[in-house]
Specification:
2 domains, two-stranded antiparallel sheet, mainly alpha, 2 strands, 5 helices, single chain, elongated
Length: 95
């Protein structure tokens, strides 16, 4: 996983592109798109370690406590409903 940083503005992009052009950097060089790249362990990444980042966030827990009950459990309700419908269809077809 990579931690990437964008260029600040058009001036920075222009300077970087001029430098990359002078160096003869290939078009697939990531510096054409990103100002900085640094390796990141997957446990530090908020996408891959959602649970650990949610546990540290107090803001997320405040939002969860303010939501109505049906919004807190909406995903579980939808998955349960889909499971029940698919199970019923399979039972009707193969039963």
């Amino acid at each position: 996983m990579w931690n990437v940083g964008r260029y600040a503005d058009e001036i920075d992009i222009g300077v970087a592109h001029a430098k990359l052009g002078k160096e003869g950097s290939p078009t697939d060089d990531s510096r054409w798109y990103w100002a900085s790249l640094s390796a990141m362990h997957y446990t530090e990444c908020p996408i891959y370690s959602v649970l650990s980042h949610r546990a540290k966030s107090t803001y997320g827990s405040q939002i969860q406590s303010e939501l109505p009950w049906y919004k807190k459990y909406l995903v579980e309700l939808i998955i349960g409903l889909i499971t029940a419908v698919v199970g019923g269809l399979l039972l009707k077809i193969f039963g």
